[in-house]
Amino acid sequence: VKHDLNQILLDRVGVQWEKEDLSYLKPEWFAESYWRRVSNAKLVSTEADAKFYIAHSDVRLVYNSLSHFETLAFNFDIMADEKAGMVRTGYEGIVEVRYGKGEFILFLTPPYVSEGSSPSTFGKKAWTNVDKTTLLQSFGLSIPSEEDWQMNW
To answer: Which of 34, 38, 52, 120 registers the highest number of CB atoms within 10 A of its CB?
Structure first.
């Protein structure tokens, strides 16, 4: 898919960023707010349901393995790359997709995302100190067999 960047127009209004309240971007506040939005998104079990409900609300679709994520990424026309068990375009394993008119977000999430409180490590980059197998297990993802691991990783 070729994207034409020539169609992007620069905003002509200057923003005085030093006068803007950007406190909501502090890591602890952002992580809490983001978790609330993701975990409160409507949980669906199929791509068809996701495409239907995204017109009216944020939607969450769970992927159970990296190969499942690759399939979803292909079907939603997004980047499917991963490195060391972390999907490249994800935040804590969560990938956002603007689908349709883009008013709402489709969240592709690993199984650990659920309603309620976030894990104590959420937003703290705790995954940077663990190996790939531990990371996949902490996200609730299935672990590829040794043979699959060698073929695909």
So the answer is: 38
